[in-house]
Design goal:
The protein has about 130 residues and is an alpha+beta fold. It contains three helices and eight strands.
C-alpha cells in the first residue's frame, strides 16, 4: 500500500512541474484549454488562513499550504508553489492542472486533513502543522 501512495505522490510532482510550466506560459494554449473549467468563489483572507499548514502524503513528500495576501498556494516538497482557488468552502482546484484539494474538518471545526484528487486517485494526508 505504501508504494502505491508514493507512486501517486510522484505523479503529483510530475503534474505540478507541468503546472508550473503552464503557469509560466511554457505550455501551448491548447493544453490549457483541455483543463476543466471550474467556477471560482471568493473566500476572505480570514477563512483562507484556516487551510495553511503541512500535510505529509509520504515521508519526504509534504504538501505545504500557505496564504499570501488573498492567494492560497500549495507546494509539494521540491516543487514550486502553485495557487489554488476555492470552488466551495473547504474545496479548492488548480487552474493549471486537473487536480482538486478537499479539506476535512474535525469535530471542533478545525482543518484536520486534505485529500488530493488527481488522475482518478484520491490521496489523503493529515495536517501536522
Amino acid at each position: 500500500m505504501q508504494m502505491r501512495k508514493l507512486g501517486c505522490v510522484l505523479a503529483v510532482a510530475v503534474s505540478l512541474l507541468t503546472a508550473s510550466a503552464a503557469e509560466a506560459g511554457l505550455l501551448p494554449d491548447r493544453v490549457a484549454a483541455l483543463l476543466p473549467q471550474r467556477k471560482e468563489i471568493a473566500l476572505d483572507a480570514a477563512s483562507l488562513q484556516d487551510y495553511g499548514g503541512e500535510y505529509p502524503f509520504a515521508p519526504g513528500h509534504v504538501l505545504d499550504v500557505t496564504l499570501s495576501g488573498t492567494t492560497l498556494s500549495a507546494q509539494l516538497t521540491g516543487q514550486p508553489a502553485i495557487p489554488v482557488f476555492a470552488s466551495a468552502t473547504d474545496k479548492f482546484f488548480y487552474k493549471v492542472v486537473d487536480a482538486q484539494l478537499d479539506f476535512a474538518r474535525d469535530a471542533g471545526g478545525e482543518i484536520a486533513a486534505v485529500t488530493l484528487h488527481q488522475n482518478g486517485h484520491d490521496l489523503r494526508a493529515p495536517r501536522v502543522q
